[in-house]
Amino acid sequence: MKITKFIISHLMLTCVGLLQVCAQVGRDSELFHTLKKQDSIFFARGFNQCDLTYLEAHIADDLKFYHDQSGFQDKTSFFENTRKYICSNPDIKPIRKVDASSLEVFPLYNNGTLYGAIQKGKHDFYIREKGKTDIKTSSALFTHVWLVEGEDWILGEALSFDHQDPEKGKASVSTIEKMLLETKVPALGLGIIEDGQLTKVKVFGTLDKTKKAPYNTIFKVASLTKPLTALTVLKLVDHGLLDLQEPLYKYWIDPDLKKDKRYKELTPYLVLTHQTGFPNWRYMTDSNKLHFQFDPGEKYQYSGEGFEYLRKAIEKKLGKTLEDLARDFIFEPVGMNDTRFWWDGSMNESRYAKNFDENGNQIETVKYYEANAAANLLTTVEDYGRFVAYVINGAGLDEQLFKDMQKHQVKLKENDFFGYGWEILTGFNDDEFAMLHTGKDPGVSTLAIMFPKSKNGYVVFLNGDNVNQIYEYLLTQKLYLGQELWDKR
């Protein structure tokens, strides 16, 4: 980006017409220290501490703010966006830090009188949460035009540009943004878990091809609902409220199955390992009725119906909804404050990543108003990243039960198994193995994976269908053991 013609013309008048020296001032000069202090106070109070009264008093009425991702903003829109996206949630707060070593200052004179200064440098952005290490989200270059107003300085113009992913070796924002445009997938959410800790959270692109996707974008994650339901079930087992081998017919019998006594064989174990004998969904069959396609326990067959069957049985037995159980055993302990099973009253639709088909056409948003144990979970990268990190670190389960969750309960094919709610892939380098789950709906493609030996993992959320190019790029070039995972597809 270039500074405005107004500023350029003033520089020319000052430096050429008046023969005033306009070079960068020394780092030991009074002006340099004054502007360094001004930058520190302005962003500490106005951005980090959200002192909006101070902020409004220290930006010019005709402020011009240029951002390479979220466009141009005047004073009104800049102030409103700061209030809405920077200062709306003090518990999860964006933080700006300047790289003091990068600062440069150039004075602005008019007839020999200092009326302002241009300040250039690099700044970094983080997400701060109480009791946790700040998570770096991006770095960028900036150019600020500070204007003298009485004995104070106010921000007249600002440019924030060349935003980059913070981690060396990770994809740059520009690379991913370009790929999103090429594939007609508006948004990508990426969370990185390293050594058992969620260390990186980044959301690229837009919610709807227009509005920039915020850090806390809400994604529909389809079948990534199942691992969360599975862990809720294991929590009930761990607390003695359920047994993996107890018959479910004591609490629930689907009306479609009443004439088929095989319903007596159904157990939580068979559901979590996808051995119920059910189709994925009854509506996808010719009869449109729930039925057994083979005897329970005979073999593996992926089934959302099984998870819904289990939900209904548990709710009947315990007299509590899945939402209540998940909140008590997972959401609250893990800190998943922005996750829900359906479009409840707390759902902030303005942060929802709308869904698009392979041609880039928006798919109508279907809002669900009751929980489904197998699909439709609404969550953020940070929330689900925390969940994956929680599971990597034992999920608060009894040690033996946690081992059983990772055990090869059912063999799918060579080096491919299923445990309790997670697919298990073996055969990676260094005897590493992976636990993973994917999610797929129209306009939804998601992945959650963890490597228990190294305690590394990641989550990938996409709100479009044309995703193969994006997955190939991320896995083969950027993510832990991603090339090996891509080769196993």
Describe the structure concisely for a colleague.
The protein is an alpha+beta fold and 489 residues long. 29% of the residues lie in helices and 27% in strands. The chain has three domains: 160 residues, Nuclear Transport Factor 2, Chain: A, CATH 3.10.450.50; 226 residues, DD-peptidase/beta-lactamase superfamily (Beta-lactamase), CATH 3.40.710; 73 residues, no CATH class.
Structural class: alpha+beta
Uncertain parts: 1-21
Number of β-strand runs:
16
- Total separate domains: 3
Question: What is the level 1 CATH name of the largest domain?
Answer: Alpha Beta
InterPro entries: Beta-lactam-related, Beta-lactam/transpept-like, Diverse_Enzym_Activities
Organism: Allomuricauda ruestringensis (strain DSM 13258 / CIP 107369 / LMG 19739 / B1) (Muricauda ruestringensis)
Protein name: Beta-lactamase
Keywords: Signal
Describe this structure as you would to a colleague.
Helices cover 29% and strands 27% of the residues. With 489 residues, the protein is an alpha+beta fold. It folds into three domains: 5-164, Nuclear Transport Factor 2, Chain: A (Roll), CATH 3.10.450.50; 173-230 and 320-487, 3-Layer(aba) Sandwich (Beta-lactamase); 246-318, no CATH class. The strands form three sheets. It has an eight-stranded antiparallel sheet, with helices on both faces. A hairpin with a 4-residue loop joins strand 12 (416-418) and strand 13. Helix 6 (225-238) crosses helix 9 (322-334). The longest helix has 19 residues, at 30-48. The protein is elongated, with a radius of gyration of 27 Å. It starts with a helix and ends with a helix. The relative contact order is 0.11. Mean pLDDT is 91; it is low at 1-21. Keywords: Signal. This is Beta-lactamase.
